[in-house]
Amino acid sequence: MKINAQRLWDRLHQLGQIGVDPQGGVTRWTFTDADTQAKNWLIGEMKAAGLDVHEDLVGNVIGVYNPGGSPLAPVLCGSHFDTVRNAGIFDGCLGLLAGVEAAQTFKENQIDLKRPLWIIGYRDEEGNRFNSGMIGSKTVTGKALPEDFLVQDAAGITLKEAMERCGYHPEAYRQGQIDPIYASVELHIEQGKVLEQNQCPVGIVEGIPYLRFYEVTLSGCSGHAGATPMNDRQDPVLAMTEWIRQITESARQKPYTVATVGCIQTFPGSTNVICDHVTFTLDIRSLDVAQIEACLREIEILEARLESEGIQVRRELRHILYGMDCDERLKHQLETIVEKRNLPVFRLMSGAGHDSQNFKDVCPCAMIFVRSVNGYSHRKEEYTPIEDCAAGANVLMDMLYQLANEEDRASSSPQTIL
Fold this sequence. Notes:
single chain, Amidase_Cbmase, 8-stranded mixed sheet, alpha+beta
């Protein structure tokens, strides 16, 4: 049995028409008009696929396939449908719509399952609007905290307020936890070049890196750009260039570690005024949390010197995601499935963070990657051909079938879809 590749492809492109940005690509930030339009479209497609659909109290869209009314713990499959600015159409959306397609294929073929299958569109994975992220999957796994809803966007609107304006009830977020969960599986584009370089359409994810997100403010002394001598300045922009150079060089010297300064704001931001203070963001990731700690110890040495030179330093931790090793049993099951689909078996690490990592210590979790052409992602040129989308979706369907037909985790012998 195979999924309907053309239907999956058509849905991807239909969703990709919502939130088209005049500057190119798609911009669909959480709890904006475009995001709400995409959510309503998703609900309609889930219903058309034969799923029972509802939204939870923070806006996660949940489609349930449970024709036999099973009371057992569900198997979860989902991803996100929000985007970064000027995004492509595959990030998050492919995995979510592949789950919908798998469930619809089961229904069309009258496939009964021993466990409920829940397809979930998680809200605010990217976190671009509120500089946070993954509130949907945090809620589902019971890892959301009250302060997660107090983060603000550029206009000073909190995540809680944005949710309330859309009719949700974030004050009752704890009721959105799903417990117990039997297992979770997510399909996603790789967003890198590893699969492409190894000529593999599908990959089995070993694990996901640790991530820390900081907001850094360096404060100096504002002054006239022409009347202040170069040797009598406390210029935070100059200090920032040293800071960025140090953190990027530190990360470059550590295995599987990356550091990115992605947003910079200067104040007052005038051409003829020495900057008073500058605020910027740091996204630092590693497969080994000790490497992140090592980078931060090195940057603290520079920060101490900057303080001695009259630059005040404030570095605030805004967001943290814990790394995760995917479940070994599920990885072995995926290897068998991939072989039966006549695809090369290949394991790789994820370079990006994903909703799946919130399932750490909650339930067994697996991820499947498909090739990203040229490794492009978070840009409008992001692309995965229909053949690879279909290959990944078929592997996902087989995995969901196996998991949803297990009575318990001991009964993990591979099963074949008739």
